Automatic annotation (TrEMBL):
TM ranges: 39-58, 92-118, 125-142, 154-174
Stored CDD domains: HATPase_UhpB-NarQ-NarX-like
Limits of the Signal transduction histidine kinase subgroup 3 dimerisation and phosphoacceptor domain: 197-261
GO molecular function, one term: phosphorelay sensor kinase activity
Keyword Ion transport set for record: no
Name of protein: histidine kinase
Gene3D superfamilies the record matches: 1.20.5.1930, Histidine kinase-like ATPase, C-terminal domain
Alphabetical UniProt keywords: ATP-binding, Kinase, Membrane, Nucleotide-binding, Phosphoprotein, Transferase, Transmembrane, Transmembrane helix, Two-component regulatory system
Pfam families linked to this entry: HisKA_3
Entry-linked InterPro entries: HATPase_C_sf (IPR036890), Sensor_HK_TwoCompSys (IPR050482), Sig_transdc_His_kin_sub3_dim/P (IPR011712)
Catalytic activity annotation: ATP + protein L-histidine = ADP + protein N-phospho-L-histidine
Entry EC no(s): 2.7.13.3
Source organism (scientific name): Nonomuraea diastatica
Lineage: Bacteria, Bacillati, Actinomycetota, Actinomycetes, Streptosporangiales
Length: 412
């Protein structure tokens, strides 16, 4: 997004440019880069100053000719100086107030300069400047009396005009601060959404790659400890290793493609489209169990749920997948019982049980984050997950996920 430029803020730094304008941190006399909106606003301010100066010409018709000439020259220069209000707002306002303490025609430019300071500088700067303006009003009221208007009324009108301009500028400044704050909140929310999506992808990839790599390790271990196995078993194990390696690389390519995706228009690059494969659902659990059996696991699956929503089925699939991966790591060869039961409106529960058996020999290393990730996944889905050893000498992973009566689009 292009920044709204004031007081020399760089055009490409919206995050910092706008606060410097609103909070008064911009450097006086900095380089100005006007946007189209800035040019329109500056033109309107210039025309306003010219209009007020033209109206004030009626007030100096009875003045001496030399004074009228000075008024006209100073008035024209004051209108032209309005174009410097973004670069030297405070300095311009001080000069205009000093000139308008006696002269009539710089008054229009003085009002524009005071409004500019009220909008682009904090009250600690605009407040003393308004006080200085009220001080310079006294000699003008005393030395330049108005026909048909007493000095007291003239002073009151001048004070009212100055305070009105200050209040108007403060309101505009406050509105810009609110808009900037809302935009910052929107940026933070968008960044949080991107971070959450990356965390979701990381959880998915942990579950998927842990499963694939554990399968690779299991088949490779079988080949290592049984070099004299029949050629058919060796070929079958090698084929499983190749297939799981291919799937692991494909999964890894997908997540890297998502994480490296370039925003449209950023540095003139376009993100390479990354094809997404269909996400697993509850209907894929029998295939997962069969895949584990082919790797030598004794998996007993009891599936008592049908037609579950895709979101619910995907979460259940990932829970079972990670639980089976843990069983392969820590209780290799032990039978694993997987039970999925539930119905709409009551929720779905899944239990994965296996005997506590420490695997001897080569052990598949783990980061210890699998069960933590499953707990987070269940909680994010509105459910719960517990795990640990049971008195019967088994390791149990039990999860419950809600299945509302009315399915939302996100669940579907």
């Amino acid at each position: 997004m292009t920044a709204h430029q004031e007081d020399g803020a760089p055009a490409y730094e919206y995050r910092w440019a706008l606060p410097s304008v609103l909070l008064g941190a911009a450097r006086e006399g900095g380089r100005v880069r006007r946007s189209t909106r800035d040019w329109i606003v500056d033109t309107l301010m210039f025309l306003l100053a010219c209009g007020l100066t033209f109206v004030s010409l009626l007030e100096i018709q009875d003045e001496p000719v030399p004074l009228q000439a000075i008024e006209q020259v100073v008035g024209a220069l004051s209108c032209a100086a309005v174009w410097l209000r973004r670069r030297w707002p405070v300095g311009l306002a001080v000069v205009m107030m000093v000139l308008s303490s006696y002269l009539e025609l710089p008054g229009g430019a003085s009002i524009v300069a005071l409004f500019t300071v009220a909008v682009h500088r904090p009250f600690k700067i605009s407040g003393p400047l308004v006080l200085f303006s009220l001080i310079t009003l006294a000699p003008y009221v005393w030395l330049r009396p108005q026909d048909g208007l007493e000095r007291g009324w003239a002073a009151a009108l001048g004070v009212a005009l100055i305070l009105t301009v200050l209040a108007w500028g403060i309101v505009v400044r406050a509105r810009r601060q609110v808009i900037w704050s809302l935009r910052q909140q929107a940026e933070v929310a968008a960044e949080e959404a991107r971070r959450s999506e990356r965390e979701r992808i990381a959880r998915e990839m942990h579950d998927v790659l842990a499963h694939r790599i554990s399968m690779l390790s299991l088949h490779a271990g079988a080949l290592e400890f049984r070099p004299d196995a029949p050629a058919e078993e060796i070929a079958r194990a090698a084929g499983a290793i190749r297939n799981n390696a291919h799937l692991a690389l494909q999964d890894l390519r997908e997540v890297i493609g998502v994480l490296r995706a370039v925003k449209p228009g950023e540095e003139g690059e376009e993100a390479e489209p990354v094809p997404e494969r269909p996400q697993p659902t509850l209907a894929d659990l029998p295939h997962l169990a069969e895949e584990c059996r082919q790797a030598g696991m004794d998996v007993r699956l009891t599936l008592g749920v049908e037609n579950a929503p895709e979101g619910l089925g995907r979460n259940l699939y990932r829970i079972v997948q990670e639980a089976l991966t843990n069983a392969r790591k820590h209780a290799g060869g032990a039978p694993v019982a997987v039970t999925v039961a539930g119905k709409r409106g009551m929720g779905v529960s899944v239990e994965v049980r296996n005997p506590l058996r420490v695997r001897h020999g080569l052990r598949i290393p783990g980061a210890g984050a699998g069960l933590i990730g499953l707990t987070e996944r269940a909680e994010l889905a509105g459910g719960r997950l517990e795990h640990g050893a049971t008195p019967e000498g088994e390791f149990l992973v039990r999860a419950w996920l809600p299945w509302p009566v009315k399915t939302t689009r996100e669940d579907a």
